[in-house]
Amino acid sequence: MIRVVQLLSIAIALSAISEIRAQAIHRNIVEGAVMKSHSNEPVSNASVELKPVLEPQSYVVQSGSDGRFQFRNIPDGEYELSATRSGFVRAEFGKRRQSDPPLHVSVNASGASSNLTLSMVPSAVVVGNVSSSGGEPSAAVIVRALRLTYRDGVPALRVEQTVVTDDQGNYRLFSLMPGRYYVSASLPANSAVSASYYQSTSSIQLARVIDVAAGSTIGGINIASHFENGITVRGKVSFTGSAASVELEPRLPMIPAAIASSVTVDRNTGAFSIPNVFPGEYFLNAQSDGYSIRIPLEIGSATVPEIQVTIPRPVHFATNIKFESNLSNPPAISFRIHAGTPSVEEFMALNGGLPTLSLIPGDYQITPWTDPTKAYPQSMRLGNLDVLNDGLHVDPSSEGTIELVMGTHPGNLQGNVISATGQPEPNTIVVLLPDAAHRNRVDLFKDVRTDIQGRFKVEAVPPGDYVVLSWEDIEPTAWKNAEFMKDYEKFGKPIHVDADGRNTIQVEAIPSR
Length: 513
Description:
Elements: H1 2-24, E1 27-36, E2 47-52, E3 59-62, E4 68-75, E5 77-84, E6 91-92, E7 105-107, E8 116-120, E9 124-131, E10 142-151, E11 154-164, E12 170-176, E13 179-186, E14 196-197, E15 210-212, E16 217-218, E17 223-224, E18 231-238, E19 245-250, E20 254-255, E21 262-264, E22 271-277, E23 280-288, E24 291-299, E25 307-310, E26 315-323, E27 333-338, E28 344-349, E29 356-359, E30 362-369, E31 376-382, E32 385-386, H2 387-390, E33 392-394, E34 401-407, E35 411-418, E36 429-434, E37 446-449, E38 455-461, E39 464-471, H3 482-485, E40 493-497, E41 502-508
Parallel strand pairs: 1-8, 9-16, 9-17, 11-20, 18-25, 26-34, 35-41
Antiparallel strand pairs: 1-4, 2-3, 2-5, 5-6, 5-7, 9-12, 10-11, 10-13, 13-14, 13-15, 18-22, 19-21, 19-23, 23-24, 26-29, 27-28, 27-30, 30-33, 31-32, 31-34, 35-38, 36-37, 36-39, 39-40
């Protein structure tokens, strides 16, 4: 009898311990609704997934006829929330486009894990046929949907989807987000021929853009392929280094980018030969011992005259680096050298070391770079020249010491973003642009994202005048493109940041177009 009582007491104690542990690990309800974008109609039978950020397992439920979903007994933690359903683009909480980072849902006793909304966009479809120039169906051809985007502010093409034609040359691009697309066709097994674009051209500059609406099916996007054979580009490079190489880079690059192939320049004659080059617009990059020169090049279907490139001898500049305040452990400084186009070289100065900048003749924008929380470029001069803001022109007779002063008293900016109706805008881009006179200063561009409450904070802002903008939806880094910004400059909210200043601002997000 005593034994039974002891066992019963142990069972009661274990039950109490389990109850205490269960109370310590809060079990929560996460609920919300799946709705169609722009119409707020419920989406039923959607598969809704709640996945812990740092764990592999997930919870899955189905949305009801009213679009509602509910997860029960969910432990505290950070989660990603998503929904999938046939006929719709995958929806992820807080994301307006696939390139956006996910917005985490904080689940705890006081967290906002109810009335969550997943907005699903009806997917679009583009169908068509690829045939040869003689009208024969082209089977096993790679067809891609491409969208115009930006890479560090420079226009580029992003591959959104890739499919293969069937035995009749037919293809179907599906689950597309609404937007503007190019469609290309290329042969997978023969890299020596160019791609063709709708409508039947080998030049992306002459290709036709297709406007794709949400939920639409667009047919008749047929491509009569003109797979042109590549030509050979030849030339000579004059250089004084130990070796040299050249490569061709499309002026409208592809994302994800193919690995750039370079060819070696003959050390004795300087001659080079690049085979299988397709018609289009390129940059030719010639490099020797860390120095490079870039020239624009347009390739047609005819033979290209021999190209002559000279990489001149470098000019050397001493540097003198000072800090506005005395720092016990000065941060490392790197110099990012921009030569007119997005070509970057870096020279590192460790802990106050004084590097020599070696530049071949040309025009440069020089940006000192370091941990922005510790220091920022305040001034940089070569004699009477303002190198930091005006750039540096280098010719064979240039000489002198570049004097750099790093500031150590940045300001901060915080605030919130609202919609046109006054609602918080979570996971939206907030951009801090320098005033028009300093748009060549890449170090002054700042961008952050709002949290689930629409709040943001930009830290370590160099003192100066700025414009603050936010968009509901925007291609990454588009704000660094001057042509793109012409339509949006008027929406900017001006603000002045003082040294050690603390600024607060409210911004209205620019609606999607």
